[in-house]
Amino acid sequence: MFTKYGYSTIAVAAMIAFVLIGSGIWNSSVWPRYVLFALAALVMIFTLQFFRDPERTPPAGNNILISPADGKIIVIKEVDEPNFIKGKATQISVFMSPLNVHVNRIPISGTVGYVKYIQGKFIAAFEDKASSENERSEIGISSPRGKIFFTQVAGFVARRIIYDLKEGDSVTIGKRFGMIKFGSRVDVIAPKEWVTNVKIGDVVTAGETVLFHYKEIEGIK
User: Fold this and answer.
1) Annotated catalytic residue, options 93, 137, 143, 184
2) Per-residue pLDDT tens for 168-185?
3) Is 97 annotated in the active site?
4) DSSP 3-state assignment of 123?
């Protein structure tokens, strides 16, 4: 299964592969022909691998906050979130390599209360300052457990952020809402009532891995 966000790119890749294969067929030299065939295969394999979109089943419960992205935990820190939570909170950052699934998923059910797109730089996504300086989308969800804030952050390679959300939308945990093309990071910020459920270096799965659990049920994962 492939994401709808990649259909146009997959079509372009198929056209490029078709041209490469056609050039190979008409090339009278054996080795250039094989090189062109190999390039065509690589273009399609990389494109299809990048835009794959497997089904995911989120854990049950309204007291958990799941990862919006596949990748590795690179940051866990205390922050002051001024835009939506407007107070002390904990940030968890997930770095996505080009090999990860890049479809992003809703981390908690609720109502979208804040959406903003910010033009910015394209610093390497694993650098801490990327959260505040890079091009990004900022999204806030009001849930039964309070406000949750998360961002899609562009990186050095990633230059296109896609999201299908607007203020007032009702959203459900684990549902697809967008993607970042060709690697980057997602930051998830939760108020102090939420307890972290992961550590630096953990590999997480969008729509399935629990990043936080609500303090009332501390110890339950």
Assistant:
1) 184
2) 999 999 999 999 876 688
3) no
4) coil
